[in-house]
């Protein structure tokens, strides 16, 4: 059975300032998602599932429904405040969804096969999708998940600080932990992050998570249990989020489980800030000129 691609597109893009998920960056107004889906199809994925807010449904279906018809199976999942939340008092004052882990959980009725998870607004590269498809088809099971690992110093923005999940791995590339580091940036020839009042250097060659995960569908049961526990502990904090690494940490706390960090040479880029947009367009133009992608992506 071909693997599925799950695209997280329900975020509000607060730092970017607009709906960057559907903004055009390619020569014919292609979104970053278009290139991810194109790469996924060529890597052997059989279905794409968009996780979106219900109010965005019409614009998403208009933008992707026709162009993907006959190329890959397409489905949609709505991530809403009340999804998998039994007590309405838990979200009375909340305005945004519960985070990436909650988004994955919302797809549990649509996905029955090994699947990859990516962000809508990140470009991951053709090789990364081939690596993910190979892992999902050959190595993924109830006790073995995966994550595509990018080199930290290749994932920074020139226009502000970023947050990255820095991976700690063992000698066999098994994930030991992910430490979320905020306010990461280049300082001369070093990569640093801010922690309280301190500026701390971090190895630029470190493997980081760009939210490109490879899961067996057994993850949904784990996520469901953890999300219920999360709500009980955190529902009063309206800014709290149920992130995918919460699920990953719980999974590898059992010694029979492993998450393989799959190093990739693919170049990541994305649009964290509005100022990143021109650079993204330049990089996509270069990839088209180098014949990595056709001029008319869906012709």
Key attributes of the depicted protein:
two-stranded antiparallel ribbon; alpha/beta; eleven-stranded mixed sheet; globular; 7 helices; Spore Coat Polysaccharide Biosynthesis Protein SpsA, Chain A; 299 residues; single chain
Describe the structure.
With 299 residues, the protein is of the alpha/beta class. The protein has a single domain, classed as Spore Coat Polysaccharide Biosynthesis Protein SpsA, Chain A. The chain contains 7 helices and 13 strands. The strands form 2 sheets. Strands 1, 2, 3, 4, 6, 7, 8, 9, 10, 11 and 12 form an 11-stranded mixed sheet that branches. Strands 5-13 form a two-stranded antiparallel sheet. Helix 1 packs across helix 4 (126-138) and helix 3 packs across helix 5. The two termini are 27 Å apart. The model is unreliable at 12-18 (pLDDT under 50).
What is the structure about, briefly put?
It contains 7 helices and 13 strands. It is an alpha/beta fold and 299 residues long.
Shape: globular
By CATH reckoning, the class would read Alpha Beta
Tally of DSSP helical segments: 7
N-to-C series of helices and strands: EHEHEHEEHEEEEEEHHEEH
What is the share of helical residues? 25-40%
Radius of gyration: 19 Å
Architecture in CATH? Answer: Alpha-Beta Complex
Could you give the count of β-strands? 13
Distance between the termini: 27 Å
CATH homologous superfamily - what is it?
Spore Coat Polysaccharide Biosynthesis Protein SpsA, Chain A
Q: Which fold name corresponds to the CATH topology?
A: Spore Coat Polysaccharide Biosynthesis Protein SpsA, Chain A
The fraction of residues assigned to DSSP E strands is 25-35%
Mean pLDDT: 89
Low-confidence stretches: 12-18
Q: Give me the secondary-structure category.
A: alpha/beta
* Main beta sheet: 11 strands, mixed
Number of domains: 1
């Amino acid at each position: 059975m071909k693997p599925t691609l799950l695209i997280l597109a329900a975020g509000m893009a607060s730092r970017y300032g607009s709906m960057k998920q559907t903004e055009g960056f390619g020569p014919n107004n292609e979104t970053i998602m278009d290139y991810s889906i194109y790469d996924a199809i060529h890597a052997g994925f059989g279905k794409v599932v968009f996780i979106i807010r219900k109010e965005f449904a019409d614009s998403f279906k208009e933008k992707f429904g026709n162009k993907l018809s006959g190329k890959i199976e397409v489905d949609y999942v709505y991530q809403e405040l009340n999804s998998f939340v039994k007590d309405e008092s838990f979200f009375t004052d909340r305005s945004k969804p519960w985070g990436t882990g909650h988004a994955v959980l919302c797809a549990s009725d649509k996905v029955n096969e090994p699947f990859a998870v990516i962000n809508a607004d990140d470009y991951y590269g053709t090789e990364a999708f081939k690596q993910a498809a190979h892992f999902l088809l050959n190595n993924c099971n109830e006790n073995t998940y995966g994550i595509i690992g990018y080199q930290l110093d290749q994932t920074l923005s020139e226009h502000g600080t970023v947050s990255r999940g820095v991976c700690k791995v063992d000698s066999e590339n098994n994930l030991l932990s992910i430490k979320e580091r905020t306010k990461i940036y280049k300082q001369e020839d070093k990569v640093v992050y801010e922690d309280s009042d301190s500026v701390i250097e971090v190895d630029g060659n470190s493997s980081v998570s760009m939210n490109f995960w490879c899961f067996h569908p057994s993850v949904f049961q784990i996520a469901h249990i953890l999300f219920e526990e999360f709500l009980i502990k955190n529902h009063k904090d309206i800014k709290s989020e149920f992130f995918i690494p919460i699920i990953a940490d719980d999974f590898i706390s059992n010694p029979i489980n492993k998450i393989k960090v799959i190093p990739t040479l693919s170049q990541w880029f994305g649009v964290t800030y509005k100022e990143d947009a021109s650079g993204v367009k330049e990089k996509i133009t270069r990839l088209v000129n180098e014949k990595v992608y056709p001029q008319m992506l869906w012709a």
